[in-house]
Structures are given as C-alpha cells and as structure tokens.
Amino acid sequence: MPFDLKRLAACAASCGLVIAGLGANPAQAPVAASADEHVRVEHLGAKDAAWQGQVFRTSVRVLVDDRWLREHALQPFGRDLGVPLQVQAPWLSGTDAVEAIVEARAQDGPTFALGESVERFDRVGARLVDGREWTAYERDFAWRARRPGEARFEAPHVRVAWSPEWRDDAFQGRQPLDRWDELLRGTELAVRIDEPPEEGRPVEWDGAVGGWSVLARLDREQAEQGDEVVLELAVSGEGAAQAMPPMAPRELRGLRVLASSSRAIEGGVVHAWQLACDRAGRASVIPPRVAWFDPESGRYASSSVEPLEVVVVPAPGAPRNAAPEDRAPAFVVAGWMKLAVAVALAASCAIAWVVARRRAR
C-alpha cells in the first residue's frame, strides 16, 4: 500500500483534534489576564464620623466570581479554606486612633485566611457590580475611638493564587500547569473622630460613650451581723463592657467595702462590691452613679439609683449592737429624761429645805 503523506497528515490532524476535544472543558469560565476581573475587596464604614470613646463598626467585603474561583484558584496555605483567599490589612489589631474590640465571630460562613489566621466570613448573598453578579462575603470589625482627629484605615488587600490552565493527573488529581500570585488592593477608609462637648458634662463622667441602662441590687434583703452582702451594678448597652468601672460606693450606713470585681455579660458588664455587715440594725448603701455621653441624642446622661437597704440581725448568742442611727434617738431621749428627773429632784429638795427653814423661824 503506498505511503500517503497527505492522508497521514490528515489522520494526525484528526487525532489531534479528537485529543484536544477530550481534554477541553466547554463549561470552563473564560481565563482572565488578571484575577482582579473576578475578585475584589472593599472596606466599608457604617458611618463617616464617631465620638471619642464610641464603639463603631466597619466591614471588609470580598466580592468573587464563584465559578472562576472554583476552576482557577489555588489554596494559599497547606490546609483547605472554604474560600481560597487571604485578606491582609495592617490595622487588624487596631491603630493609634482606634482600639480593636473583640466580638463574637461568624460560625457558619466559609473560612478565609485573615492575616496569618483562619477565620470565617459571613456570606451575604449576591451583589450586582458593573452589570455582573458577584458573591459577597463580609467580616465585621468593631473599634473604639481613642482620640479626636481622623482614624484612617489603609486599603486592605486580598492575595489570590491561581492558574490559567490545569491538567488531570491519574495519581495526583487535578494539577495546575502554572501558578500566578496577585495582590489586589481595595480602597482606604477614613472616619472622623469628634470629642464630646463640655457643656452639660457630669463630674462623674469618665469618658464613657454609648446608650446605656443601669440596674443595681443587693444579693439579699436580710443578713446576720458579721456576714457579707454583695452590691451589683449592671451596666448594659453599646460600649458598656469597655468602660472604666465606677468609684466604690461611699455613702454606706452600717456596711463596709471589702473587695470589688467586674465581669463581662452579654451586652454589658456587672460591677460588684463585697460589703461587710458590721452592726445589727437597718443598713443601707447608695450605689455609685454612672455617667455617659449618648451619641444618638448628643447629650450626657447619668444613672439615678435609689438607696438599697438590708436588715442586719444579731448573730446567734451575741448581744444586740444596733447601728448608731437606730439607737441614737433612744439614748438621747433617755439622757434628757434622766436630766429632767435630776433637776426635778434637786428642785424638790431645794423647796423642801426652804419651807423647813421658814417653819423653823
């Protein structure tokens, strides 16, 4: 059979087309010249101004083309991430102008690399950008403004490792034919920080800012002499957990401060003082006042808590040792009665002596 070069070339071309067709993926997303056509990062602020001491929030939003990411992205670390991207920013732990506030994080969202750690982002659904639909993931941050001026957040970055082409390996699975690493830049964010006004500022204000409520209570209404009772002051509201604890109660009657402590609760903090019941009788305490600046109304507010009382009974077998405010009136009355009796007796003796002298004459 004669050797036909044209036929052989045609067969080779035909085989080549068949092989290429088997290796191609017709549903594959178009390969981009740069990852920024499929991945973006933004830093958004809930407000453009805040008060010194106020807690405010910002959010890092990552927009991705899910299909492109599945087909071209590489894992940036040894472990698998839900979304194989690394978000970077120099201000993650705070700056001179703002203090980072630790809050509960997302529990159900996919994992990202955030700085050098792995954390979850909330999936917030689709966003339409430039006529295209992107999937949005967000991570919220809480900050407490430290000083007046401007809090400037440098632009965040997202690191993307990807390959334009892949091959299927019988032993290692899907493998990239190349690796491109890109660092995509977002935009800067600036928040103006204002100082609360001096007008109307209470003397007990210590820089606290937020909308708060205050509740005070004693852990019991009756105790024995020598026992301890606990005064609790619960402060709840935005930023309450980061506020300075108030001064210890000073207006004590029959009680004495032994120790103090604070513990965080959901949405606030509880300050507590251990009080010793030194004397039997009715003891009372006026809880310390708490003042704050309310950013919503632009005015100062302070707590107004009524005095709290506890009945202190004598310990078993011990003589009653009433509190001074309980026993003072009785002693005063008894003293005046004794003095009146003595004066009356002296006057009677004097009169009797005078009458006896006159009769003797």
Descriptive account of the structure:
The chain has helices at 5-23, 66-72, 324-360, and strands at residues 39-45, 49-51, 55-64, 86-88, 98-101, 111-114, 117-120, 122-129, 132-145, 149-153, 157-162, 166-169, 173-176, 180-185, 189-194, 212-218, 222-224, 228-237, 252-253, 255-265, 268-277, 281-285, 291-294, 299-302, 308-313. With 361 residues, it is α+β, with helices and mostly antiparallel strands. Helices cover 17% and strands 42% of the residues. It has 2 domains: 29-194, Sandwich (Immunoglobulin-like); 212-313, Immunoglobulin-like, CATH 2.60.40. 24% of the residues are buried. The chain is elongated. Strands 1, 3, 5, 8 and 9 form a 5-stranded antiparallel sheet that branches. Strands 7-6-4-11-14 form a 5-stranded mixed sheet, with no helix packed on it. The chain is built from 3 helices and 25 strands.
